[in-house]
Amino acid sequence: MNALTPQPSHLAMVPFVSVANMLKIVNRIGPAQMIAGIAAYLEDDFRRWEQFDKTPRIPAHSRDGVIELMPTSDGEIYGFKYVNGHPANMARGYQTVTAFGVLSRVENGYPVLLTEMTVLTALRTAATSALAAKHLAPQGATTMAMIGNGAQCEFQALAFQKVLGIDTVRLYDLDPAATAKAVRNLAGSGLTVVACASAEEAITGAQIITTCTADKQNATVLTDNMVGAGVHINGIGGDCPGKTELHRDILLRSDIFVEYAPQTRIEGEIQALDPDHPVTELWKVITGQAEGRRDARQITLFDSVGFAIEDFSALRYLRNQLSDPGEYIELDLLADPDDPRDLFGMVQRARP
């Protein structure tokens, strides 16, 4: 670089949160507290749901999985997430889901945050589940069954403990090693953790049932006879066309709540139902425009596929935590020539 090479101005610099720095932030705040903080931002944004641009995620499907973009804006800030879902990755030594995200100012298009979102998505997914259960689960619920003990399992358990006050989580996975991993990771959490030998055993005594499996197919994790009156089902594993976890008859007995119906009808459990089957968007329950749980015998189902506004909330929360310069990097991301018309001159002046 010669003496004439322009140095980055403050306008060129964008805060970047790496995986290492995200881990610092999560451990400084605490995973459960961070989930609760994101849940509070989620609730605020769900209350102003109508202010947001709402675009179903933009997927690129392949035989191996899916790569998606998830954009939204509240008119002042624009956000998007890049995320993949590749169920066979784990067997090949890769993560099933990875992600990164961006926040930008609408007024000038300049990014104000670039961050890893693999860890942040796990936190926001758990926060969304807990927020929905806060409005839909039976009052006084103490026990949750977690069917599917992969990467999301511990986050879900801590979310329901922190936000709803559950004290017992019953775990089941087809792979006993996944359950053993979750038991180890939740030791010292204050939860009573019970490893179970079957899904039927796991749901025994549970008022909340969370399903979170990774197979990219129409599976039957829960059969109709397994689900009794009064439970809340948190269905988070069905999240793309051709991937479901619940028997259709369970859906027909449940009051179904979704994030954004046009997306969920394509990707969620309700893809198994008629296109006009009635569902309620969660924001309407949170704002009092629709009923959530009505009585003790009602079965509620949160058919959660993940929506861009939730990522926006998590990104907004994260940005507001960046008070310590040691927890992010100022990344020279934007070309910012002294004369906006002279980008080529900037290139020339950088010649060795």
From TrEMBL:
It comes from the Bacteria. This is Ornithine cyclodeaminase. InterPro entries: NAD(P)-bd_dom_sf, ODC_Mu_crystall, ODC_N. Pfam families: OCD_Mu_crystall.
